[in-house]
Amino acid sequence: MSLGSREDFNLTLLGEERLNGKAVLGVQVASPRHRQVKLLFDSNTHLLVGMEQTIPVATGKEPLQRTIYNEFKNFDGLTLATKIAVFRDGSKYAEAMLLDASFGQEHDKSLFAKP
Description:
mainly beta, 115 residues, outer membrane lipoprotein receptor (LolB), chain A
């Protein structure tokens, strides 16, 4: 089912699947100028919990890379994943943990006005 398109990208609903035992909805994003990417959203929270795409590497191969976002926490009103795992062709490639995040205070817009 097409979710919509513009001349620079097209969104297609792929349906429900399971990721780490949870129901997720897949959305395929296609663009003539970029590689296709599959976005996975938690069916209950609607948070982005995964992403899949092929990527070029120095060997000339294009492995499937899956990035999984886990353990979400609220930081200054924004919900962010605190654990990120990256897999290439099914093997763990990298892991990251977000321990803390803060965002600067909003500045007076007059600071950026043209003189």
